[in-house]
Amino acid sequence: MEKLKYSSPARAWRNALPMGNGTIGFMVYGGRRTEKICVNDCTLWSGYPKNYDSSESLEYLPQVRKLVFEGKNKEADALTEQKLCGFYSEAYMPLGEIDISFDRALPFGRYSRELDLQRAVHTVKSGGFKREAFVSYPHKAGVYRIESERPFSLKITLKSKLRSETFSDGMLYLAGNAPDYAAPNYLRTETNPIRYNEGKGMAFAMGVKAVTDGKIKITDKYIFIRGAKEAVIYVSTATGFKGYDKMPEIDRKVPSLRCKELLEGIRDSYETIKERHIEDYASLYSRQSISLGEESGEDTDKLVKKAKKGDVQTALAELFYKFGKYMTIQGSRKGGQALNLQGQWNDSLRPPWSSNYTVNINTEMNYWGAVSANLADCMEPYINLVYEAMENGKKTAKANYGCEGFACNHNVDIWRKTSPVQGSPSYMYAPLCGVWLSNELYGHMKNGGLEEYREKIQEIAGEAAKFVRDYLVMYDGYYVTCPSASPEACFNKNGSECSLDYASAFEIALSKQAMKNCLEFTEDRQLIEELNERLSKLYPFRVGSTGICEWHDDVPISEKGHRHFSPLYGFYPGRVIKYYGNPEERKWVEKLFDYRTANSSSYIGWSAAWAICLAARLHRGEKALEVIESMLGHSVFKNLFCVHPPFLFQIDGNMGFIGGINEMLIYCEDGVCELLPAIPEKWKKGSVKGMVVNGAEVSFKWERGKVTELSSSKPLKVLNRNISDKCSVSKEIVLTEKF
To answer: Are 461 and 442 in contact (CB under 8 A)?
Structure first.
């Protein structure tokens, strides 16, 4: 299946269909007599560069560590919350809305709405009336075409939830300013959550140009077209963003002129623009593909409805995977910004968790499957995000923690905030999140496709390792992290719920991975000596009553089915605990994984995606399928957006799903690949084309758990397991009997 199909329009934002080019985001409703298109620009955020680094944090850090080592964890929590904190991130903003009202005389007719994932084109058909929409990367514009067998009229208006105005100048424009500050949605007692009082909010604009065979009238309020059989609407956006470390442009005229230049520069015909768009998009989308052996002609919302009743079609799982690939390409392209909590699609002034970069899992998950799905070309925005966070994070590392390298806490925005927020230390205190970002990038580079960024990625990895080197402290004969959190989790001690301890499994694994990464490439002899010394005395993973210990010892955790699998980071997405190379620790991982999933009662999309990835790496195909079917039955909207309860959209679950399926199909350890490590019996046959692993593009087919055809673009070692005796194997493949 390569299409999302519907027999009725979307009635809510979360059921509209997303489009984009890495800068402009569209949410298209596809109404019968009206059309609504919600528009985003990836650089439109509240606020401006601000410094929340704190020397007070460094002053009180030794005291917090002392309290933790003395077993006074609750007191350490309180002091951290008071003295080692910062302020909230800024928020990703909705730009505006395009409303199109059509002639009431138009016939209804039979209705269909679809999104073609192979071409990235949205189509609505009804009674001889056809509308197409796409957002072009080559032409840097959104495009909406209406054609009809009989003449029609329409009216186009623009509006925004931000302070703005509309005006005309041969085209229709919307121009305004973002707020100076937008409070997170979870601060429910904030008296003035959206603030414009400083007059420093970023300027933005949207321009709309109409080309038609009918008569056209443009005023400062609308565009009116009469007696047309065809109309093409072109949309451009621009903002006053100048860089993460520069004050934004606040004069609305500047982005307005940029919109005008962009639209005036479009001189190609609609067909040429569409052809170039499809060619550009398909060149990325078609590089890699999977088939799980089942097709369905049913409407997408009907497949989702069946899943909610327990009938999960394999075709829906395949479609969900392909939709995730589609959104990666639509939302993350060179020249744009990295995918945030909602990708680049948001309609709220106070979106869930500010729609920021939540880097204690969510931002990393957005790219888990990208490189292996042959979408390395979509990685540059993420690389730039981490590099810029590194630059700011060097200041935070020095000011807040007295360390070299770079620190980054759990909320980042377009201004590359790296200091903590306020609130519970369970999430607020997270200085090793920059290490996680770095480790992810380094892992993607090793897998292949990012060679042009090697120097930049190694610089990031080196700075992450330096922070680990300096942040680790010696206690009782071991190097440990302290204070140490496990994201958003708590434990019980002396009758109190506590957030901070020392040597959490999460932070030990992050540290170990970062140091090992750096040692693979650095030529700095002193750094090599220091990292090896710390690795030799790093606090070891330990086992407790529920599996691997989340904290330094076996303490009771507050929430048995906690949504974060952070203690298992070293196993996935990290690689310091290997499936074959560390069998004892792997058993500890599996025990805690089973404990968490057995006690989980919530249906959170991104948590389910992480569970799929872990089950796959544990070689448990039936468990992975169980989570997949639960996720598709409980955590997906009609438009396949992933759900965070109660009814919020987060893109991370969509993207983590890609990583999970890829992990079910191929596992790698120490340069050797294992095919079908976690294939469930239900997926009786299928195929993979162009999956990237160890720098090679791998393609294969399987039937009943056995690979029947196998090829690779480069030499590749493959474990001789799950390979049919009659398998056709290309000359680049070297079969081996063990890892």
So the answer is: yes
Kindly state the tokens that stand for 261. Answer: 């230049």
Q: Could you report the per-residue pLDDT of 455-509, keeping only the tens digit for each?
A: 999 999 999 999 999 999 999 999 999 999 999 999 999 899 999 999 999 999 9
* Low-confidence residues of the chain: pLDDT under 50: none
Write the pLDDT tens digit of every residue in 324-369: 999 999 999 999 999 999 999 999 999 999 999 999 999 999 999 9
Residue 365 main-chain phi, psi, to 5 deg: -60, -30
Distance CA 474, CA 218 (A): 71
Q: State the pLDDT at residue 107.
A: 63
Dihedral angle sign, alpha carbons of residues 451, 457, 459, 461: negative
C-alpha distances (whole Å) from 234 to each of 280, 429, 683 are 18, 45, 44
**Two tokens at 375?**
């979408």
Contact 722, 675 (CB under 8 A): yes
Query: What is the separation, in whole angstroms, between the first and last Cα of the chain?
Result: 36
Supply the angle between the helices 454-471 and 525-536 in degrees, to the nearest 10: 50
Which H or E run includes 66?
Answer: helix 55-69
Integer Cα distance of 189 and 653 in angstroms: 29
Element (H, E) at 587: helix 583-598
3-state secondary structure 378-407: HCHHHHHHHHHHHHHHHHHHHHHHCCCCCC
- Cα–chain-centroid distance for residue 509? 22
Please check whether residue 299 is in contact with residue 315, taking contact to mean a CB–CB distance below 8 angstroms. Answer: no
Check whether the bond before 573 is cis (ω within 30° of 0). Answer: yes
The DSSP-derived string for 597-623 is HHT-----HHHHHHHHHHHHHTT-HHH
Q: What pTM did the predictor assign?
A: 0.97
- Alpha-carbon distance of 171 to 218, in angstroms, equals 7
Coil, helix or strand at residue 3 = strand
Taking alpha carbons only, the member of 409, 356, 411, 416 closest to residue 391 is: 416
Q: CA quadruple 274, 275, 276, 278: dihedral positive or negative?
A: positive
